[in-house]
Amino acid sequence: MGFVRRLVAVGTVVGVAVMGAPVAAGAAPPGIVIENGVTQPVFSYDDAIQEVVYVEAPMDSDGDGRRDLIEVDVIRPAETAAGMRVPTIMEASPYFGRDAGDPPPDRTRGFPGWWDEYFVPRGYAIVQVEMQGTGRSFGCPTTGGVEDTTSIKAVVDWLNGRAPGFHHDGSAAVADWSTGNVGMQGVSYVGTLPNAVATQGVPGLRTVVPIAAISSWYRYVNDQGVAWSTWSENVDFRYTEYLADYVSVGRTLPGSASAPACESVITGLGDAEEASASDFTPFWQERSYLPDANKIKTVGTSVFMVHGLTDYNVKTMHFADLWREVERRQMPRKIWLHRGAHVNPMSVRPAEWQAVMHRWMDYWLYDIPNGVMDEPMADIQRPDGSWETHATWPDAGAKEVALGLGPATADAAGTLSLDPTTGGPTQSFVDVVESQAVKIGNAEQAKPGRLAYVSPPLARDLRLSGTPELSVRMSTTADTALMSALLVDYGAGPTVTVAGKEPLDVVQESCEPEDVANRTGCAEPMETSVEITPERVLSWGHIDVKNSPDLRRSQPLTPGAQYNVRWTTLPSEHVIPAGHRIGLVLTGNYNANPSSNRPARDAAAVGSEITVHLNGSKLVLPVVGGTDALGF
Questions:
Q1: For residues 53 and 287, what is the distance between their CA atoms, to the nearest angstrom?
Q2: Between 443 and which of 29, 413, 466, 620 could a Cys-Cys bridge form, CB atoms 3.0 to 4.6 Å apart?
């Protein structure tokens, strides 16, 4: 294999880095201490063993004729050297290598989170994994490709004795201290990797905690045939290429982004993305974890999802799509939905987050019966900051309610009602690029670039819980069309804006115990502003009508022909106050999407006229209490 020669090329062989206090020979292996249903901090953090391991993955992503080696940093109680076996909490990341300079290949880079200081004294190992093609791992990054999954799965296999591992000097590294029970957690891309591995049904992976995580890379870059991300109008982002190049910066091993092998691999990502033209091609199908969700259940992995309801980076359909698969198979699960954006839950609810993670890991990795699975499944935060608990999400009482679209009059907006539209009326708008505020503002005013429909005032508060859906019969004057739907709460009230963070900010911000205690770093409270506005957007969604029959391939439209178009908006968990009205705005292109990504666009559709055939068009809402709850 030439393992030693491979590592000598990037550093001096100085032996195995294992640090820890000696344990008396012949002493019985110590055990954990449990009080009040949770493990107690009885093991010395200062004496903990730290070591670097290189796990052999069953792939050769850089094409150099040798299997990729995946770098792993381990910290575990010193007592594991005397026969104690412990479970592992794993954080796998593509970003570790972007630190300024890597440590020598036989030294850990340190553990920049609160997890090690908290859990090692309670009898856990903490493992940090550098994804293939990043940091000190070999291979090439592929932005959600099968290589991502394979590289991290190999480490779970190593912890279960199913994959070989080596120290820097070439000696075998055997995880004989591991019980084989593994829990993965992380935020953003670091939370996406748990989704990737869990959907492969890996024995020993007892739980995953995906936070602000992607469940389909297609839906991260596109929305139902429409590209989210563009550098500028009409220019494709080639996002997968950009991100692969980004995470490989700063590498110290052969096969980095500057090497020809990885250059071609990374450029190939952009080529394949651009060629897809936002169709759900095999390139994207490989990067969707949803089709394999059933494999999570085959090995009994539990799922604890966390997502911000105003996360416009990793948008809310990512948690909802995977949660739907987990829910319908009745897998063990729990969920937190907070009002924030793309943030670590430590910045939302630090003490409660640390406590629930302690009980969750104790239950799933040590089988301690502490009642965490007997509690309400869903914790939901409202815009005013208060928290509610519910038996599940979406609410069990949510029913699909279809609202028909009635035509506008000279001095009133169109209507949303329980009565289906009859008589075959039509309404038209011109696809013009305007701000979101212009599109939704003043529903009673006729505007050429949108159609607005509103319900009567609500007699009581109305809760939406689930994913709204549109069914629209339409025609257009062009051979392409972008349809956008915005769900609006019309009525004066507070619009709460919560600042989000870029993915790299989330994973690189300081998260040491002092940050948690002092509400700094990852625990710094979110920046929130409140403004009284006449309306607020609750949800939105887009579709390229050319992809309506088949997301896998687009087909040019026939001008004047009628098409039945169905699409979804972002999932909704909102309470609309009594006296307000439910609003729907139908439009095409628009600007100022409140997102860190660029707005969706189809420049070829700008200037075309779209006609909506109201008879047969409807908005379907997930209403808690069904039609009786509407009050009109």
A1: 28
A2: 413
- Per the rule left: phi > 0, alpha: psi between -120 and 50, beta: everything else, 540 is beta
Enter the tokens of residue 118: 């908290």
Q: Which residue has the tokens 């290189």?
A: 54
CA–CA separation, 83 and 176 (whole Å): 8
pLDDT in tens, 21-80: 344 444 456 899 999 999 999 999 999 999 999 999 999 999 989 999 999 999 999 999
Model-level pTM? 0.92
Residue found under tokens 């004057």: 477
Residue type, position 466, single letter = G
Q: How far is CA 153 from CA 165, 167, 205, in A?
A: 13, 19, 9
Distance CA(69)–CA(58), nearest Å, equals 9
What residues pair up with 568 in beta bridges, in sequence order?
A: 469
Structure tokens at 565: 């178009």
Helix 239-248 crosses helix 260-276 at what angle (to 10 degrees)?
160
For every residue of 280-328, DSSP letters joined together read --HHHHTTB-GGGTHHHHHTT-EEEEEEETT-SSS-THHHHHHHHHHHH
Q: Nearest 5°: phi and psi at 17? A: -90, 95
Q: Which structure tokens are listed for 553? A: 């391939």
Tell me the two tokens of residue 57. Answer: 């993955």
Count the neighbouring beta carbons within 10 Å of the beta carbon of residue 422: 10
Residue 105's pLDDT is what? 81
- Tokens representing 606 are 């700008």
- Give the distance from CA 352 to its chain's centroid: 21
Looking up tokens 């994959």 gives 163
All residues at 6 or more sequence positions from 631 whose CB lies less than 8 Å from its CB, including other chains: 458, 459, 460, 462, 578
Residue listed under structure tokens 């379907």: 620
Active site members: 188, 311, 342
- Paired tokens of 33: 């201490």
The helix-helix angle for 146-159 and 189-198 (nearest 10°) equals 70
- Going by pLDDT thresholds of 50, 70 and 90, the confidence category of residue 256 is very low
Kindly state the tokens that stand for 482: 């972008």
pLDDT at 13 over 70: no
Q: Are 522 and 411 in contact (CB under 8 A)?
A: no
Mean pLDDT computed over every residue of the chain: 89
Q: How far apart are CA 494 and CA 535, in angstroms?
A: 9
List b or e across 470-483, with b for residues whose CB sees 16 or more CB atoms inside 10 angstroms: bebbbbbbbebbbb
Phi/psi of residue 451, each to 5°?
-120, 135
Joined together, the tokens standing for residue 12 give: 């001096």
Residue 342 neighbours by CB under 8 Å, 6+ apart? 188, 212, 308, 311, 312, 313, 314, 500, 501, 502, 503, 506, 596
C-alpha distances (whole Å) from 80 to each of 171, 179, 341, 607 are 19, 11, 40, 69
- Out of 93-107, 169-183, 433-447, 545-559, pick the least confident: 93-107
Q: Which residues make beta-bridge pairs with 416?
A: 405
End-to-end CA distance of the chain: 73
The three-class DSSP label of residue 48 is: coil
Nearest Cα to Cα of residue 302 among 369, 367, 364, 215:
364
The whole-number pLDDT of residue 236 equals 55
